[in-house]
Structure formats: C-alpha cells, structure tokens
Inverse folding.
C-alpha cells in the first residue's frame, strides 16, 4: 500500500515538526502579535483622546477597588491632595531618551484619604551614577493632572532598599505601588499616576509614547503565512510521494538495485567475451 511511507520514522518526524510549527503559528505566535497590535491601537486611542478630553476625577475613572487596565491606561485624571515626601522612593536603572535616569515616586494623600503613587518625572545621573539633586514636592494641598499607568512587575520581586550607595535614599527597581507601599507602610492604591508638564511637583516630565501603529499586525500575518506554507509544503510532498516514482516509494530503490545488478552482469559478460579464446 502506497500510504505505508507515511509511517516511516523520517516521514513521521517531518510530519510532527511541520504540524507543531503550524499549530504554534496559528495559536501562539500570530495571536501574540495580534494582541500586541490591539494594545498599541488602544494606547494610541487613549493618548489621542487625552489630548482633547477633559481630565476626569480619579474616583470616576477608577472607582475604589479597581486597578488600571488597558481601558484606562494613559487616560488623564485629576487628583487633589497633599504630597507625602517622607515616603518618597526613586526608581533606578531607568532609560529616558537613551540616557540613564531615575524616576521620582512620591505618594500623595487625596482629600478622601486615598493614597496615590505619583511619578513626578525623571532626573539624570551624577558623575558617580547617583541621583542628581531635584526639587522637593510642594507642601500643602495641590491638584495634579496625571496619566493612569499600570504597575510594573519585578520578576525577582525585590523590595526597595537604601544603603551607603544611595545616600540613605530609598530606591526600587520598578515603578510599582506595591513596592512603595511596603517600604513606606502606606496603603497605596494599585497603579501609579504620571505627571505631565506644568503640574505641581513635576520635575522633568517623561516623554509620551510615539503614536505609531508598529509592525505587529504585519508580523501576525507573516506567522499565519508561514504556518500555511509549512502545511502546503507537507501536502505537496505527500501527494508527490503517492504518485509512482516517488522518492520514498519502495519500488524505486528495488528497481535501482535490479538495474545495478544487471549492469554488473553485463560487465562480467563483456569481460568474458574479451578474454575468451578465439575460435
């Protein structure tokens, strides 16, 4: 039966590789790129809307008990309260426009008692990679306009620390309200809030992401094409092997063996004729 070649170890291995690759393209790689494209579109829409929309009260956009998500990220909110500079933390190992920097994170207690983590912007590095001097947060009640951001996550789950290298200043490896809450003992609500320019307490405002679609959608289509090409290639070679004379059919090797035997027999016959005594 000609389908028996499908059970050969080499062909089974090829089949497993091809179908595994195709499944990964359809269920993992392409959906991953589609999700990234959707996130990019959502971010662009939020940024575009924020340029013209009026900032919403923070409790209206983020009711108590909710965390920032893809539907609230980058939206502008207004918060009225008082900075808590004694609980300030700086995030280390940051990069802003290709340069090393620190981000200054200062909690702010709102008038209703809720504590928010405010990202006041960034400062550069000193000659020994320390934190350059920066302005203190203003005292007294202030109203700030800030962008909603989701907490970052440190894969190593490191706490904020202070030692001689930080001159006693608390430093963290991520911008994460949970890390600052643990270091300060404050009950800080999830997420953080990034100040724009000309806001009370801002240092150097962080630049906003570029409004571009990115290559994610085209990458997703490419992965779908790669998976389809792999399956079509497997189907092509399968059909080719089902036809007479296929490279993996059993008839062809046997026929080649018979031909080689015939050739040897003919050569022996020719040698006998050459060396046989003439009559």
């Amino acid at each position: 039966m000609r389908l028996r070649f499908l059970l050969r170890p080499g062909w089974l291995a090829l089949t497993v590789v091809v179908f595994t690759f195709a499944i990964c393209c359809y269920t993992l790689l392409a959906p991953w790129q589609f999700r990234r494209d959707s996130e990019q579109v959502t971010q662009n829409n939020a940024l575009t809307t924020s340029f013209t929309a009026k900032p919403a009260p923070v409790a209206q956009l983020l009711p108590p008990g909710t965390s920032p998500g893809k539907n609230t990220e980058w939206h502008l909110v207004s918060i009225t309260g008082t900075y808590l500079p004694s609980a300030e933390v700086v995030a280390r190992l940051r990069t802003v426009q290709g340069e090393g920097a620190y981000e200054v994170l200062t909690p702010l207690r709102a008038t209703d008692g809720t504590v928010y983590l405010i990202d006041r912007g960034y400062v550069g590095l000193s000659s020994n990679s320390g934190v350059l001097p920066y302005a203190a947060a203003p005292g007294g009640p202030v109203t700030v306009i800030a962008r909603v951001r989701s907490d970052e996550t440190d894969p190593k789950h490191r706490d904020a620390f202070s030692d001689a290298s930080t001159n006693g200043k608390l430093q963290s490896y991520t911008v994460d309200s949970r890390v600052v809450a643990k270091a300060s003992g404050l009950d800080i609500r999830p997420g953080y809030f990034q100040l724009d320019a000309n806001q009370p307490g801002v240092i150097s405002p962080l630049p906003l992401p570029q409004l571009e679609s990115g290559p994610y959608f085209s990458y997703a289509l490419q992965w779908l094409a790669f998976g389809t090409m792999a399956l079509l290639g497997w189907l092509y070679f399968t059909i080719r092997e089902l036809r007479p004379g296929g490279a993996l059919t059993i008839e062809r090797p046997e026929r080649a063996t018979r031909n080689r035997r015939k050739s040897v027999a003919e050569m022996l016959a020719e040698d006998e004729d050459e060396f046989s005594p003439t009559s």
